[in-house]
Amino acid sequence: MATTLATTRSERPVFTLEQKLGATWPNLHACEQATDEAIDRLRAAVGRLSTEDTSVVLYGSLARREFTADSDADWSLLVDGIADPQHLDSSLEIGRRIAGIPIKQPGREGTFGQLTFSHDLIHYIGGEDDTNANTTRRMLLLLESVPVGGADAYDRVLRNVLERYLSEDYGWVHGRNPRGVPRFLQNDIARYWRTMAVDFAYKQRQRGGEGWALRSTKLRLSRKLIFASGLLMCFSCALDSAVASLTAGSPSRVQTIIEHLWKLSRRPPIDLLAETFLLHDGLNGVAVDMFGAYDDFLGLLSDAEARSRLATLSYADAATDETYELVRRLGHRFQQGLTRLFFEEDATGIPELTRIYGVF
Amino acid sequence: MFKIGFSTGALAKGDIAHGIEMARELGLAIIELSALRLREMDTLVNVVAAQDFADFEYVALHAPASFDPSDEKAVVDTFAALAHSNRWPVIVHPDTISNFELWRPFESLLYVENMDKRKPRGRRVEELEDIFTYVPNAQMCFDIAHAKQVDSSMTEAFRILRNFRDRIRHLHISEVGSDSRHRQVSDGAFRAYNEVASSIPCDLPAVLESVVSESEAPLADASSELKRVTEFLAHAAHVQSSVRTPVSS
């Protein structure tokens, strides 16, 4: 069963923003089209392998709706039910079927392309058992994931993860948190962003520099995007009047905000950013540049030659490489937009929240 | 103070007359006459014809949980006769309905129940909304155990309670395990149910589907279950009557 949360292209806030600004973001449109086609193929291939206890979940560019010809199909079979040896068979079958369609398999880390168990995601938040892979799977479930086929297990796990972040946040539950932003959740999203940044340096060393420029490109843009959208998701608990009005002790507050965050989790991260920009005309100028930079970034990833150049670029050549110089400029334009949004445009209420929650 | 009763199926499986007898022994004013298997329909008709239900404040009927589409007309005819003559509501599992036209004449006596996770429809808000487009005047039976099995975070239960607040007329309370069988409510399930305590319509008839028919002391177990559910509803009513004051930062 698919929950009716999907939006059509014309309903996506990023395209509403494009229209409002009179901008043209052709690469976002091309990626939207490519994502639709890829998800349709994947749904046809593996959608029926989900059950009431399992969901086939896609992550990364497919969930961000930024799929390009060279993107990986990051997937997992999310299990939320009694143990069943057949779960592994289903997972292997998904891998076989995806291998049979012209889409790249998941990356080499082994985080995806296999079974993921709800117990680990729900119970191991923090502590030694919350491994790097577990944190990644949980955070990407929250920040950039989409089910194909049955969504029962997917929605159940997502909501239970959110339930843990909210109901175990003492300050949030008891109204000791100044603006009602869920700190436990926000801290974990911030931790994940820092982990990605640190792991960038780790992989750079482990792989002897192989692929570092492409990873740097993604860190500057798409990885940073999901951190920013995660922050906005948390800040929305203070900024969205429907949920911000629910003070500690309000009946159904936890369930109302789980539902609110669950709906945000099911949307592409760039749409969460675009919705914020749509609300504030003072950000129009910076929005043109920031979203334009993101569109150019997607164009770069769609360009086989540029992508190949980034995948093979050495440190020694980076300083004089035109493609990498373009990446740096795109990263700076994107960052300028985020700086304006999170630190400068006080009318949005966001800089105040960044001061309260963003660092300490 | 709460309108709590039992389903005859939970008390005595297909032995409807015995279930009614047990309900009387327990002093219940609320009863649901269930013919969960198609073959129990004749028994139900005969029991209703033979008994006087004046000592019950509220009686509801439960249609079979599974039947072939070719039997649907017979099911509808049987329950229509019982429902309309007595003004008793009929609880139906929406996944059993093949032809909504047949069920529409029940109007507000038709109570659509939210389903457990094995069922293809009727589990979640969006699926229920779809069903009510076919039977717009139908009301709803909210089964908290089904809702928990579909979504253990209880968010779906919360959404159903909120979105169908004006349709819900009847509650089912029990626990459903991973095998989808109804059983007595564990402490863990009550903890989960407390997540939506503020949204439970405590004034509605609450029918227990906690199966005691297979226990060694069914009456004692039924009595114990009634006590525990009464405590749960009392807690829910208390939550609803008192809004906690936020602690200052």
Overview of the molecule:
The complex is a heterodimer of chains A (360) and B (249). With 360 residues, chain A is mainly alpha-helical. Helices cover 64% and strands 5% of the residues of chain A. In chain B, the strands form two sheets. Chain B has an eight-stranded parallel barrel with strand order 1-2-3-4-5-6-7-10, surrounded by four helices. In chain B, strands 8-9 form a two-stranded antiparallel ribbon. In chain B, helix 4 (72-86) links the parallel strand 3 (58-62) and strand 4. The radius of gyration of chain B is 18 Å and the shape is globular. Residues 244-249 of chain B have low confidence and may be disordered.
What's this entry about, in short?
The complex is a heterodimer of chains A (360) and B (249). Chain A has 360 residues and is mainly α. Chain A contains 18 helices and 4 strands.
Please give a handful of descriptors for the protein shown:
heterodimer, A: 360 residues, mainly alpha, four-stranded mixed β-sheet, 18 helices, B: alpha/beta, eight-stranded parallel β-barrel, two-stranded antiparallel sheet, globular, disordered C terminus
